[in-house]
Amino acid sequence: MTDKTLFEPFKLGGILLSNRAVMAPLTRNRAGAGLVPGAFAAEYYAQRASAGLIIAEATQISKLAQGYQDTPGLYTPEQVAGWRKVTDAVHARGGRIFVQLWHVGRISHVDLLGGAAPVAPSAIRAATRTFVNNGFSEVSEPRALEADEIPGVVEDFRKAAANAVLAGFDGVEVHGANGYLLDQFLRTSSNIRTDAYGGSIENRARLLIEATAVVAQEIGAERTGVRLSPVSPANATLVTGEEQAQFDHVVERLDGLGVAYVHVIEGATGGPRDVAPFDYAALRRRFRNAYIANNSYDLALANERLAAKEADLIAFGRPFIANPDLVERLKTGAPLNPLDPSTLYGGGARGYTDYPTLVG
């Protein structure tokens, strides 16, 4: 096994990635007025363009999809123009960049939604908090989406994908993970519907598959990926033991759509990998295109999984925050910069664009 496995190129759909290291989507809460990417966003992402692929931070598909203060959108002309500055900067440095399309569902607060209640599969409040009004507050009581509202949600995903292309992104990732809307529909703990979107495994997967299908139809399956987190307890998601059958089905359906990749959080988001039993290899067997593995990877584990063909790409999250040149540091064995957790969310350049690189 070569120690350069992570640094080999990879063809993802129709684009050639310079290496197999992916910058995972990382919420930074730095959007400006109108939820346009902030003043330093283009510099931040361009600094990290040596990643084989950047997946830009979770970006809401509509105003009612927002769940946290100062997160960017992709549904107004101003937001599209703001993201265009980001993609142009990344492409100027030879990078590739997708954007993650996001609807938070019940993980929101009325103060972010103009007084409206968050929407969810069912009117079940999540036992978690969100960031609003410059502090953390309990999420608001959601209301169940009416059946005739669901096509509008699907259409919002389509429009956001079209806007992503206008903004210059190389593709999009549909956010089906971490206890947000599409993931909420997958779970019996948050979805007790009795219509076509609840009950059976097939019905609970319906919204995720419909949203992904319209995105793939709009911009091409080869430019579409999906993020999943089968057993992560993020955002009060309950792990019930039903996950293997549910996600085996989801991945089979995504394979049928021909999407470019599935991006799988293995274990708890940002936490232990062994939080609950799950056979990730079963997903790999059911999906013909790229498998992006995510969660607590270092170079040794990344190369081990890549060499064994158990993954095609490896996503790194927080290491990319403190190390704009993470790929070079991994390649040369240079030490990593420590992360300053106090600057993760909100603020300006400090802790965003001022981390040092090996050169300059």
Task: Note down, in words, how this protein is organized.
The chain is of the alpha/beta class and about 350 residues long. The chain has a single domain, classed as TIM Barrel (Alpha-Beta Barrel), CATH 3.20.20. Helices cover about 30% and strands about 15% of the residues. The chain has an 8-stranded parallel β-barrel with strand order 3-4-5-10-11-12-13-14, surrounded by 4 helices. A two-stranded antiparallel ribbon has the order 1-2. Helix 7 links the parallel strand 11 and strand 12. Helix 6 runs parallel beside helix 7.
Secondary structure layout:
Layout (H helix, E strand, L loop, with lengths): L9 E3 L2 E3 L3 E3 L17 H7 L5 E8 L16 H16 L4 E6 L16 E2 L8 E4 L2 E4 L4 E2 L5 H17 L4 E5 L5 H6 L14 H4 L1 H14 L4 E5 L14 H15 L3 E5 L14 H7 L3 E5 L4 H9 L5 E4 L1 H5 L3 H7 L28
Parallel strand pairs: 3-4, 3-14, 4-5, 5-10, 6-9, 10-11, 11-12, 12-13, 13-14
Antiparallel strand pairs: 1-2, 7-8
Helix pairs in contact: 1-2, 3-6, 6-7
CATH topology: TIM Barrel
Main β sheet profile:
8 strands, parallel, barrel
Query: pLDDT average, as an integer?
Result: 97
Number of helices: 11
Secondary-structure element order, as H and E? EEEHEHEEEEEHEHHHEHEHEHEHH
The top-level CATH class is: Alpha Beta
Enumerate the strands of the largest sheet in spatial order, edge to edge or round the barrel: 3-4-5-10-11-12-13-14
How many angstroms separate the termini? 33 Å
Low-confidence sequence ranges: none
Q: What fraction strand?
A: 15-25%
CATH homologous superfamily, by name? Aldolase class I
Number of domains: 1
- How does the overall form come out from the CA principal axes? globular
